[in-house]
Amino acid sequence: MSVGSTHHLEMVFVWKQNYILVDEYFFFCCTWIVNSAYKNVLIDPEMGHACIIDVDGLVVPGKYPPDVVGTPDFIAPEVVKTSHLSKEDPNRVLPSISTDRHALSVLIYMYLFFRHPLRGGKIHDMSDEVRDETLSMGEKALFIEHPTDKSNAVKVSQLSSFSLPWADPEKIPYTIMGPYLTPLFERAFIDGLHDANKRPTADEWESALVKTVDLIQPCQNKACEQKWYVFSGKTKPVCPYCGTPYKGKLPVLNLYSSRKEGSYRPDDHRLMVWSGQSIYAWHVNRLIAPNERTTDAQRKRVGYFVFHNDQWWLVNEGINGLMSLPDKRQIAIGEKIELTNNAQFVLSKEEGGRLVVVQLVEN
Q1: In whole angstroms, what separates CA 2 from the centre of its chain?
Q2: Dihedral of alpha carbons 311, 312, 317, 323, sign
Q3: Element (H or E) spanning 178, and its range?
Q4: What domain of life is recorded for the organism (predicted)?
Q5: Would you say domain 9-213 falls under CATH 1.10.10.10?
Q6: Long-range contacts formed by 152-156: CB under 8 A, 24+ apart
Q7: Three-point CA angle 299, 305, 308, nearest 5°
Q8: pLDDT in tens, 154-203
Q9: What backbone phi and psi angles, to 5 degrees, belong to 330?
């Protein structure tokens, strides 16, 4: 794509209530976009499409230098801190892949929580609004949910009632997004806020988002406003939004994949089971990912889960290699397999094929 192109970059994402999975395809090859902004990322949650527009700020290292600093709220602290220096000054920090990683982290945080990770209650200069903004977003930038330094914590008394509960991190902390996104938020806004080398990459965000979508489960409280929440990994899960505990049998599928025939290793990837939940090609094989390269055939579900007669079942719609263990019984398309505690079954014996171990939690 040439600089100044009017075409947009397509992205694939999954939407369930406030949870968004976006394939960050725009961080591709050796180029980057340095003007992440509110109006540049367009999302249609109903149709499942997203795109980036206004990519005339595309940068190619050594060929097309950045011509914009960025958009306030998304500019990395080191760029803000040195923005008063000349572009020729060796101490001036210009937009780069590392600063884009900060912008991406902010974008994801804001989409999930409807608040900015650095805009808290701390005031650095009451007499100079511009200087206060520069310090807050630059040299003195501090995560509003920092675990030990509470000086920039959100002051709830200053919040509009219309922004609650999302604007209050005490009510909805970043940790509710589960075991995959939580450490990335910490790297982005604690460890890597002032150390660009520690920031998570776009690939890491993509992987964590994919895994997190598989941890989403429906709240059993029909009156819950959010309807869905991320499984925390605890044996007694509770909806963080309405406080409703999960009751009944809860299957959790632990995914393993083959590196060589007959040998499976844990993928640190789980799939929550709920009635109507689907299984796709990227669950069957680790080497398939739900991104812009996914074919139409791979987007079609190959199985689904159903709770029937007080038992959980996986119905095979298109998994050719589904096999139960240890009896090695083939589960043909159209047949089903029961999900019992510690049950094991193979989804595929091909390279990257998955083995599933069922963990059944009862509450």
Answers
A1: 29
A2: negative
A3: helix 178-186
A4: Bacteria
A5: no
A6: 152/118, 152/120, 152/121, 152/122, 153/120, 153/121, 154/115, 154/120, 154/121, 155/120, 155/121
A7: 155
A8: 999 999 999 999 999 999 999 999 999 999 999 999 999 999 999 999 99
A9: -80, 130
Residue 159, Ramachandran bin (φ over 0: left; ψ between -120 and 50: alpha; else beta): beta
Helix (H) or strand (E) holding 10: strand 9-16
Question: Two tokens at 115?
Answer: 């608040």
pLDDT in tens, 109-133: 999 999 999 999 999 999 999 999 9
Residue tagged 């977003």 (tokens): 137
**Hunting for tokens 């080191």 — which residue is that?**
78
Query: What span, in angstroms and rounded, lies between the C-alpha atoms of 177 and 226?
Result: 13
The domain segmentation of the chain, as residue ranges, is 9-213, 248-362
| Residue 264 token pair | 């499976």
Q: Which residues does residue 251 pair with via DSSP β-bridges, in sequence order?
A: 360
